[in-house]
Design a protein that fits this description.
This protein is of the alpha/beta class. It has one domain: STAS domain (Transcription Regulator spoIIAA). The chain contains four helices and five strands, in the order E-E-H-E-H-E-H-E-H. Helix 1 links the parallel strand 2 and strand 3. The protein starts with 7 loop residues before the first strand and ends in a 12-residue tail after the last helix.
Length: about 130
């Protein structure tokens, strides 16, 4: 059988009051606490936390639940948790558990727009 890939998480400052948490490998019972800790640290530093799921190989119900709780917690405290869409099987877990209703899942280009919004143009003056 295949060896499950180890869970890895990294954190980086996304600028513009944003933090980026990158999850790779498997999120199971043993990895949930580490990911929750990383998300909590990111929430303390930034109003917008981006959780990148693109390199996730699998996630179980405990991981989905924890991410849904983190999303609700972020909104309650005036922040926002945005998930970068992962592989199809990870996406299916969010939909299958009903968690897709309580979390914000977007594609990478949507996150780029959040982090680097178009400059505001000043309205033209008519004389």
């Amino acid at each position: 059988g295949s060896v499950p890939s180890a869970f890895v998480r990294t954190w980086r400052d996304g600028g513009r009051d944003a933090a980026w948490v990158h999850a790779a490998g498997e999120i199971d019972d043993t990895a949930v606490a580490r990911l929750e800790q990383a998300l909590h640290r990111a929430e303390l530093r930034a109003r917008l936390v981006v959780l990148d799921l693109r390199e996730l190989t699998s996630i179980d119900a405990s991981g989905i639940e924890m991410i849904a709780r983190a999303s609700v917690r972020a909104r309650r405290t005036g922040g926002r948790l945005v998930l970068v869409r992962g592989p199809a099987e990870v996406d299916r877990m969010f939909v299958g558990t009903g968690a897709s209703d309580s979390v914000e899942i977007v594609d990478l280009d949507s996150v780029e727009r959040l982090l680097h919004p178009l400059p505001k143009t000043s309205p033209g003056r008519f004389v």
